[in-house]
Automatic annotation (TrEMBL):
PROSITE patterns: PROKAR_LIPOPROTEIN. Its EC number is 3.4.16.4. It comes from Microbacterium murale. The keyword Oxidoreductase does not apply. InterPro entries: AmpC-like (IPR050491), Beta-lactam-related (IPR001466), Beta-lactam/transpept-like (IPR012338). This is D-alanyl-D-alanine carboxypeptidase. Residues 65-374 form the Beta-lactamase-related domain. Residues 33-54 are annotated as: Disordered.
Length: 398
C-alpha cells in the first residue's frame, strides 16, 4: 500500500477520531513575494501592518528553505505554506508539496488554511475587549453566564482563558457517537458545550493547567450572551473588519471553505488517511480559516496587543507552563510564549498551524501544514516555527 493511500476507516476507530480531534512527495519549495493588503482599516486607530518590502537575503532564504525541506521530510508532510517577515530585512514565503495527494494538487500561497486552535487567540481577544469595556470581569464565574457547568460558581473566566478551570472536555463518548454516526453533522456552539455540561471535573479550579477546547468554547458562549450576537458576527465587527482580514472567516460549514484548499491527513498504519472536513466540531476553539498574509497580520496584532488596553495586554501575558497541552514555554490568556516569541499554534483533523511574532525584533513566522496527530506527538508546523526561530536567533548572534 502506498504511503499516501487515502482511506475512510477512521470512521470505525473512535479512539483515533478522539486523538485527531484533540489536538515526501515531490516537495518543491518556491519563494515569492506575498499578496499584501493595503495598510487600511475600517476602524480609526487600527492600522493593518504591511509586509516588509523586498526579499530576505539569499543566504537566509536558503537556510529557511532547508529547514522547510527537512521538516517536511522528517514528518512526511504532504504540503505546506510558510512565511517569514522581518522589518527592515524583507520577506520570504514558500509553498511546498501537495495540497491534495489524490488529485496531485500543489500548495498555492493564496490558499485558505484552517487555523485550528489559533482561533482561541481570537476568542480570548474578544473576551478581553469586553473586559476593557467593563462588560465582564476576568473574575466573573462561568456560572453567571452558562448554566450547568460543573463547579460553575467557582470557575472564573480567567481560569477558562488560561486553561486552569478543571473542566472536562466535550470530546466524550456522547460526542464521538454523534460525530461518527454522521461526520458531516454541523454542530452548534450550544451543542458542543452541551456535551460537557454536568460532567465530572478533571481537577479543582486553579490547581492545574490542562488545555481543552471546552474552556474556550464556554468563553464563546459568554461572548454571545454579553453581546447578544452570534460569535461570527462579533468576530467580524470587532476584529476581522477593523484589521482588514478579508480572507479570514469563522465557518462551521465546510461548503463555505473557499476552493481550492488543502486536504488534511493523519497517519494510519503505514499510510496517510484523509480526514473529515468538518469545521463545526471545534467552535470558537478552532473553527476559523485564513490565508498566509492574514495570519501574518494577526500574529503581529495578537503579540503587540493591538485591540487591547496596554494594562490588559500585560495581564494577558501573565502565565505559566501547561501541565498537559501543546508545546509552549508558557501559556497565558489565549496566547503562548516560547523564547520571546508570542502567538498560538493549532492541530486537528489533518492540519497543523503556528502563528508567532517576536516583539523585540518585529519578526513574524507563520506555518501551515496538512498533516496532524503524529504517533510521536510531534507538531510539524510548530517544529517548523521553532527551527525558523533558531535560525533567526543564530543569525542575530553572528
Amino acid at each position: 500500500m502506498s504511503q499516501y493511500d487515502r482511506k475512510s476507516s477512521w470512521l470505525r476507530r473512535p479512539a483515533i477520531v478522539a486523538a485527531v480531534i484533540a489536538g515526501v512527495v515531490g516537495v518543491v519549495g518556491c519563494t515569492a513575494s506575498p499578496t499584501t493588503k493595503p495598510a487600511v482599516s475600517e476602524t480609526p486607530g487600527i492600522l493593518r501592518p504591511s509586509a516588509p518590502e523586498g526579499e530576505l537575503s539569499t543566504t537566509l532564504q536558503s537556510q529557511l528553505q532547508a529547514a522547510l525541506d527537512d521538516t517536511m521530510a522528517e514528518y512526511d508532510v504532504p504540503g505546506a505554506a510558510v512565511g517569514v517577515w522581518i522589518p527592515g530585512e524583507g520577506t520570504w514565503t514558500a509553498a511546498a508539496g501537495l495540497a491534495d495527494i489524490e488529485n496531485d494538487e500543489p500548495v498555492d500561497l493564496d490558499m485558505m488554511w484552517p487555523l485550528r486552535s489559533v482561533t482561541k487567540s481570537y476568542t480570548v481577544t474578544l473576551l478581553l475587549q469586553l473586559v476593557d469595556e467593563g462588560e465582564v470581569s476576568l473574575d466573573d464565574t462561568i456560572g453567571q453566564y452558562v448554566d450547568g457547568v460543573t463547579a460553575g460558581d467557582e470557575i472564573t473566566l480567567r481560569e477558562l482563558a488560561e486553561m486552569s478551570s478543571g473542566n472536562a472536555d466535550y470530546t466524550n463518548d456522547d460526542f464521538l457517537a454523534a460525530f461518527t454516526a454522521d461526520p458531516e453533522t454541523i454542530f452548534t456552539l450550544d451543542q458542543l458545550n452541551g456535551f460537557m455540561l454536568g460532567t465530572p471535573a478533571q481537577f479543582a479550579p486553579g490547581t492545574e493547567k490542562v488545555y481543552t477546547n471546552a474552556n474556550t468554547n464556554l468563553l464563546g458562549a459568554v461572548i454571545e450572551e454579553v453581546t447578544g450576537q452570534g460569535f461570527a458576527e462579533v468576530l467580524d465587527e470587532r476584529i476581522l473588519a477593523p484589521l482588514g482580514q478579508n480572507d479570514t472567516r469563522y465557518i462551521v460549514d465546510a461548503a463555505d471553505w473557499t476552493e481550492p484548499h488543502a486536504v488534511g491527513y493523519a497517519p494510519e498504519g503505514d499510510s496517510l488517511a484523509s480526514q473529515p472536513r468538518n469545521l463545526s466540531i471545534f467552535g470558537p476553539a478552532g473553527s476559523m480559516i485564513t490565508t498566509l498574509d492574514d495570519a501574518r497580520v494577526w500574529g503581529q496584532a495578537l503579540a503587540t496587543g493591538t485591540f487591547l488596553q496596554p494594562e490588559t495586554q500585560a495581564e494577558r501575558q501573565d502565565g505559566a507552563p501547561l501541565d498537559v497541552g501543546p508545546p509552549y514555554g508558557m501559556y497565558a490568556l489565549g496566547i503562548g510564549e516560547t523564547d520571546g516569541w508570542w502567538g498560538h499554534n493549532g492541530e486537528g483533523l489533518g492540519f497543523t498551524a503556528a502563528v508567532f511574532h517576536h516583539p523585540d525584533s518585529g519578526a513574524t513566522v507563520v506555518a501551515f501544514m496538512n498533516e496532524s496527530n503524529l504517533a510521536n506527538k510531534a507538531h510539524p508546523a510548530d517544529q517548523m516555527f521553532r527551527r525558523v526561530a533558531k535560525i533567526l536567533t543564530t543569525g542575530a548572534e553572528q
